[in-house]
Amino acid sequence: MVVSILSRIARDRGGNFGLMTAVLLPVVIGSAGVAIDFANALQVRSQMQGMVDSATLAAASAMADQDMTKEEAESFAKTYFLGEAKQATAVPSETPADKAAREKALSEGLATTATVTSGSGNSRTYDIRMTMNYDVALSGLSRVLGLKTMHVGVASASQSGREGNALSMYLALDESGSMAWDTTTVNSAQPTKQEAYNCGTGNQSKTCYRTVTNYVTKMQSLKAAAAAMFDELKKADPTAELIRLGADSYDDKTKAEQAIKWGTNDVATYVKNLPDVPDGGTDATGAMTNAYNALKAANAAEKTAHTAKGNTSFERFVVLMTDGEMTGNSSSWNSSLDTKVRNLCKKAKDDDIKVYTIAFMAPAKGKSLLSYCASGDDYYYEPDSMTTLVESFGEIARKAAKTDTRLTN
């Protein structure tokens, strides 16, 4: 009897589908969960990679710019990464305990190493390396299969270098009347000022005052930008044995020049003393002539000076800056002056002098001239605000001194 009942049960197929469903359903659900969580983990890994790349690149740049110690650089990189990572990995509606555990895991999974290598002369190489290991929490679907986390690991390395490039540089700077004009940048230290105006009626004159926005002038912008350049050059050559600077300013007349000397101090003083309220037209021919004569290969003065410091080779640069077009002592463009400046630029470039040009809020003819004068697209700048002018001067200094930051992973 019992054997007969068991035999009938074995032959009955009616419950197999339900039984197989009961067995396979967790596997199907878990597999779907793993697929979803795997895609999410790849996204988290991509985010982590971007964040460690950003952190190492920022730290490598800061090491070179701020002369950080190894410990300072490692702390900088860690703080930079965690600031982004804690926000990027935040989970909606997580409890304070879960948040603390997540942030602790980020901190403990991070390893950072910084090194500084000295080369010949003043050259330095700054390396920063970072690894990040993090367990991404899986969804409830994956937990059906007993999977709670998925490991994500990323690494990044960045390097910045100060190569100590020996150079001689001459600045030809515009101090024409339009340099007294306002930029679009508000003076953050004093955002407003009092402006006098005639508020009298009829034939009576009366002076009243009103509050207006206080914008930074072009000349103030130039002085700030030049100061940023000199800071960069001083970092590249703290002992003033690699970099020589000279300068000459101009309106429709060529001003007294600052002869080329070692370091940045003399030229920094020269630029600082440019008139706060300049006037006059625009004629760069004299300043460019002085720049060319000081740097040309036929003039042995620079070679002699560098050789005496042990610099077996050096590069020569002119930085030509204007906010206008060549007008001479008039208010109209002067084709003859424009052509003379172009010819001087060609002479300099033919003599292997690299020419950087900066057309600061300049009109079309000014931009055309400076675009022609530049030694290439990478040597031409067209800033339209104080901020971009400062950035332009700083970038020229880093390029000339060959200080750069590059991602090496």
Can you walk through the features of this model?
This protein has helices at about 1-10, 15-65, 70-90, 95-110, 140-145, 220-235, 265-270, 285-295, 300-310, 335-350, 365-375, 385-400, and strands at about 110-120, 125-135, 150-160, 165-175, 180-185, 190-200, 205-215, 215, 245-250, 260, 315-320, 355-360, 380, 405. By secondary structure, the protein is of the alpha/beta class. It has a 6-stranded mixed beta sheet with strand order 10-9-4-11-12-13, sandwiched between helices. It is globular.
Brief summary of the model shown:
With 409 residues, the protein is an alpha/beta fold. The protein has twelve helices and 14 strands. Residues 17-25 and 27-33 have low confidence and may be disordered.
Layout of helices and strands, plus pairs?
Layout lengths: L1 H10 L4 H51 L3 H19 L7 H13 L1 E9 L5 E14 L2 H4 L5 E14 L4 E8 L7 E5 L5 E7 L8 E7 L1 E3 H19 L6 E8 L7 E5 L2 H8 L12 H11 L5 H8 L6 E8 L12 H16 L3 E6 L4 H10 L6 E2 L4 H16 L1 E5 L2
Parallel strand pairs: 4-9, 4-11, 11-12, 12-13
Antiparallel strand pairs: 1-2, 2-3, 3-14, 5-8, 6-7, 9-10
Task: Estimate the global geometry from the Cα principal axes.
Answer: globular
CATH class of the largest domain: Alpha Beta
CATH H level of the largest domain: which superfamily? von Willebrand factor, type A domain
**Total strand count, please?**
14
What is the spatial order of strands in the main beta sheet? 10-9-4-11-12-13
